[in-house]
Structure formats: structure tokens, C-alpha cells
């Protein structure tokens, strides 16, 4: 049974990863179990009606792979449009969110989890789902990240649907501060434990979800869920020093941005970030995020255009430089495996599908994910994603898993943490704790350099784990887990069947 290190968004999700690791699970098993719990207790950030990506560094040293379980455009055989309205909120400095049944996309994260487990897992599927069932059955308190988001939107987004309002509000109509219990959710998870992803795509849950969405004016039909398939792709590779990193490939844009920024940083910082390093970082963000807005977000052939951009980055750095709501879990194990999982339900449609206890996503209503407009894609087309779950392999055999939630801050958070760790020689926790910079609306007339003066979940929530092999025969391996203080991050280290405190960072 391998040693496993886990970094997760909250204590309950970290507990789930630990429970599965103690039962013989590897990094993939532990990460998936922890992520499943976030779909229960990270209300407003992620749910079972989510999309996500799982990037795995196989323990046999093979090339990293990414399982794409991101959202599909629904609407097969239906007239598109309707069932939505806009909500203006001060969250994140002010955003307009499109919600309602018409904003619900075809989910895929559980299908991706099932595929990753089939390829690389080592314990039965039911054991991965068991901790999430337990959390749903017992009830749970909102995480700090959920409370922060819901403070802005508990009425406007989560108050229009009767079940949703009852779940997040107390008897006086204020936001719930006690335990949240969704009686149908545990039963839904029991179906997922027994039947796997088919419960959500061709089974009872699929029927309940699609029927309710259609009844309320949406376009997510039974055929959209039945036809959904996760896709396994070779990860997008970048080399930085003695590290080889694998991240999310197209059609996601997040991994492309991470790869380009890492290459353009040119080994910065050397030590702590100084003023010149930060100035260069802003130039890199302007070049990469601006290119994303101008080219990648509207591309008809994202794989081609992303490849051309990365080729230009490698060929001529100077030419390039002059030109939401998610949850993340990382895990590594002593066999050399690493797993990075990022999942999201957007800002939430605000509705719970009747009879399921499942809050439904609003990913069709997020302009960052769907820049061609609410129903502007052909049914069956994958939406865009900022997500960039990343794994790394060092020439000495070390393995790393890293990722972050945070909408368009995902890529900048990951890059700054990786650069501090790989280039700057910082400890993993020190690199994650360091204040961040984010260029909002890069390359636009209203672009703003946002510099973190006090820790804020706006700048992401990086979770990372590391395994370093023993330097000699019989030596102990080093297992490290680091979670972001910007959220309720929690870490666990399991050696054999006995959990121990995380290694010193």
C-alpha cells in the first residue's frame, strides 16, 4: 500500500482522501474521493452537476494523460433559447451571471472520474463514493469559500428555486449558518456508487435532471446526457529546468495559458520575487491572456491555434511579449503517481433538480466558458475551460500535482506558485503563500493590474502535493502536501495504514 499525500479544499474532503488511502488507495483514488466530497459541501462552487478534468502522472513513469469531463453544449433536436435571466452581483468586483434552467450544460465530471478510476484506480469505485455519501447523509456546514460567495448571491441566485432557498436559508430568511441537509442527495450518491456514471447519463438521475430542466424551459434533454463521453488525451507538455509538466490540452485554454506563461517566464524568479520579476510577470500575463481573449476564445480550430501560439513562444519570446468558481484536489503517492483534479459548476443555475438534491450548473451562462453566447455552439460541442490541473515529473523521480480554482485567475495562480517553487527555490507552501498579481482583462483598454495586499480567495486556491524519492538505498521518501491559506485548505499524509502529520515545508 503506497504512502499518499493529499491537498484538498476543506477538512471533510481531505478526510475522504485519507480514508480511501488508508484502505489501500493510491493518489488517483484519494484525489477522486476528496473531489467527490467537494461536490457535496462546496455549495455554490461545485456540485455533482459539474464538469472537470483529471490529469494523471502514471506511477509507471509513462507520459501524463488528461481525462476531459468538461461540459457539453446541450439541445439536440430542440429550439435553443429561453429559460434564463441575468443577475448582477458585486461578487469578484462585479459580474453579471446568467442563471435558470436554460443555462444548464451537460455535465461530465463523474464520467471523467469513472474513466480515470478504471485506468489508474486500485480500490472499488463504491469506496471512492462512500465518504461523499456519509457527508451528505450527516449534513455539513458551508466552507468559508462557499460562505464568501453565497454572501453575495444567496438571494438572487440561490433564492428563486424553492428547494435551493430552503437549503441555504434559515427560518428567518437569513443565510444558513448551521448544518445543511439535502435528503435526496445521499440517495443520488448511492445510485452513483452502485451504477457509476451511467446513473447520471442514462439512468434515473439523468431522467430526473433532464425532465426538470426541460419542464422549466431549459434545453438539456435525455439525449444530451446519454450521448456524453469523457475523452482521454495526452497532456500538454512543458519543460522547466529538470521538471517536465503535463497540463490540460485543448479544447481547454487553461493548460495552454499555463504552458505559455511558464515558458515565457525565462526561469524567473531566482529567489524571492523582486520588482523586476513582477514587472516581467505582468508582461507575460498581458501577452498570454490578451492572446487568449483575441484569438483562442474565438478560435474555430483551437488545437491548431494553440499549437501555433506555443510554437511562437518557443521560437521568439520577445515577439510574443510585445504583442469562477471551482474546486481543486491534488494527490501524489510513493509509487510515483500523481493526480490533479479540477471541477466546476460555474456560478450555479440556482436550481436543484427535483428528486435528486443536486444543484445544477450554469456553465452556458458564463461568458468566459461560452464566449460565442448562451446557446451559440452546436449541441455536443465542448465549452471552453480555464482549468489547468497539472502534474510534474523530475529527472530524479520526484512527482508533483498542482492546480487551483479561481476562474480566469486559475492559470496565473498556478504559474506563480510553480515559478516560485521550481525557479525561485521556495518551499512548496512558501510558493503557494506568496502574494500574487493578476492582470484583469489583459490587453483591453480597461485592464487592471491587481496586486494582492492581503490573502483573498479571488486569487485562487492552489493545492499541491509532492513526492521526492529517497536519496539512497533504504532512505525514507519525502511526502509533502501544501494547501492555500486563501481557502479552507487541508492536507493529509498517509503512510501505509497510519496517518502522520504532513512533512515540514
Automatic annotation (TrEMBL):
GO molecular-function terms, A-Z: hydrolase activity; transferase activity
Organism: Aeromicrobium endophyticum
Protein name: Gamma-glutamyltransferase
Keywords assigned by UniProt, alphabetized: Hydrolase, Transferase, Zymogen
Source organism superkingdom: Bacteria
Similarity-based family: Belongs to the gamma-glutamyltransferase family.
Any Pfam family matching the protein: G_glu_transpept
InterPro entries: GGT_bact (IPR051792), GGT_ssub_C (IPR043137), Ntn_hydrolases_N (IPR029055)
Tagged with keyword Oxidoreductase: no
